[in-house]
Amino acid sequence: MAEPVKLQFIAPKRGMPRKHFADLTHQQRVDALAELGLPKFRVNQIAKHYYGRFEADPSTMTDLPEDKRALVAEKLFPVLMDPIRVKETDDGATSKSLWRLNDGTLLESVLMRYADRTTLCISSQAGCGMNCPFCATGQGGLDRNLSTGEIVEQVRHAAATMEAEGGRLSNIVFMGMGEPLANYKRVLSAVRQITSPAPDGFGISARNVTVSTVGLAPQVRLLADEGIPVTLAVSLHTPDDELRDELVPINNRFSVDDILDAAVYFADKTGRRISIEYALIRDINDHDFRADMLGRKLYEALGHRVHVNLIPLNPTPGSKWDAAPKERQDEFVRRVRAQGVTCTVRDTKGQEIAAACGQLAAEEQ
C-alpha cells in the first residue's frame, strides 16, 4: 500500500507589498499614470477619491476614462489588507480589526468612538523588535516594517467606516503594533498624508495625531525637526534606568536621561506638551518612591509641558505581569501630581476583546 502523501504548509515569504498609490511621491504618481497614457491632472482626480472620499477601487472613479480604470487599479491600487475578523465591545463603540497582509503577516488596528471624538489606534510594524517583556507584541518579535501604504490604508478603512456611520475620524494614535520611530521614513510619510489637506491627505489636524516611542532618542530629535506639530508620547514605564533596562531593553542604548533630553528638544521645537505613557504593573513599577521620582524628574525637565498617562496594565494570557490594584493606582497618581505634574488614568477600552496590541494576532496564530 502506498504511503500517504504528507502535506507541508509553506509559509508565505515575508516582504514588502507591491507599490501602492500611498507609497508614491507626486512625481512618481505622474510617471506611473504616464505609463498608462494618462495626463498628470489625473493624479489629483485620483487623490480626491482616495483621500476625500476614501475610495481605493478605481472602478468607482467615474471621472477616469472607463477603459483605463482596470489598468489604474492594477498599477496603483493593489489590495494590501484583507479583513479576518472584528471584535467589538463597549456596546459597539470599540472595535478591533485583525487584518492579513499579502504575505500572510497579521496586523491589528482599533477604532474607539467617544462622545467628542473618534480615535484610531494604528500599527506601524507587523510585530515589534523592542522585546518589552510585558507586551504581547514585543514577545512575539518583529515580522517586518509596514509599508507606507499599509499604514495609510488602516486610516482610509477607518475613515470610510466612520463616514458610513455618519461620523468622522478625528484622531490617530501610533500606539498599535510596533515601534513607530523604528520605521521612521514610512511613518513620517504616513503622518504627512494623514495631516495634509486634500487632495494630498486626509486633513486630520496634526495636533490630533500622536506618535509613540519607547525611547529612540535620535529619531525623536529628527521628528522634532520635521516641523509637524504632532503629539509625542514616550512609553517610559519607570523613571530609573535599573528597572527600565529590564522593562524596556532599548534603555540599554538610550537611557531615561537621553529620552527626556530628546523630549525637551521636541517640546522646545514644536511647542507641544509631551505625553508620558506609564503602564502600572503590580509590585514592579508601582512603588511610592518611583511615583515621587517620576514626578520630580519630569517637572525638572519639562515643567508644565508634560502629562502622565497612567495605564492599568492589560495583562496577556499566561503572563506573570498584572495590573496594579486600584488603591495603588490612586496613590501613584496623587504622588505624581504632588510634584507638580498632571497625571490621569487612561480609559481602558476593549480589555475583553484583547485590545492590548498583539493579543488578537497571538490568538489567531
Automatic annotation (TrEMBL):
It comes from the Bacteria. GO terms for molecular function: 4 iron, 4 sulfur cluster binding; metal ion binding; rRNA (adenine(2503)-C2-)-methyltransferase activity; rRNA binding; tRNA (adenine(37)-C2)-methyltransferase activity; tRNA binding. Its main location: cytoplasm. Its EC number is 2.1.1.192. [4Fe-4S] cluster binds at residues 128, 132, 135. Its cofactor is [4Fe-4S] cluster. It catalyses: adenosine(2503) in 23S rRNA + 2 reduced [2Fe-2S]-[ferredoxin] + 2 S-adenosyl-L-methionine = 2-methyladenosine(2503) in 23S rRNA + 5'-deoxyadenosine + L-methionine + 2 oxidized [2Fe-2S]-[ferredoxin] + S-adenosyl-L-homocysteine; adenosine(37) in tRNA + 2 reduced [2Fe-2S]-[ferredoxin] + 2 S-adenosyl-L-methionine = 2-methyladenosine(37) in tRNA + 5'-deoxyadenosine + L-methionine + 2 oxidized [2Fe-2S]-[ferredoxin] + S-adenosyl-L-homocysteine. Residues 114-352 form the Radical SAM core domain. S-adenosyl-L-methionine binds at residues 178-179, 212, 235-237, 314. GO terms for biological process: rRNA base methylation; tRNA methylation. Keywords: 4Fe-4S, Cytoplasm, Disulfide bond, Iron, Iron-sulfur, Metal-binding, Methyltransferase, rRNA processing, S-adenosyl-L-methionine, Transferase, tRNA processing. Binds 1 [4Fe-4S] cluster. The cluster is coordinated with 3 cysteines and an exchangeable S-adenosyl-L-methionine. The keyword Cytoplasm applies. It is found in: Cytoplasm. One of its GO terms (cellular component) is cytoplasm. PANTHER family: 23S RRNA METHYLTRANSFERASE, RADICAL SAM CORE DOMAIN-CONTAINING PROTEIN. Belongs to the radical SAM superfamily. RlmN family. Specifically methylates position 2 of adenine 2503 in 23S rRNA and position 2 of adenine 37 in tRNAs. Reaction proceeds by a ping-pong mechanism involving intermediate methylation of a conserved cysteine residue. This is Probable dual-specificity RNA methyltransferase RlmN. It comes from Corynebacterium maris DSM 45190. The gene is rlmN.
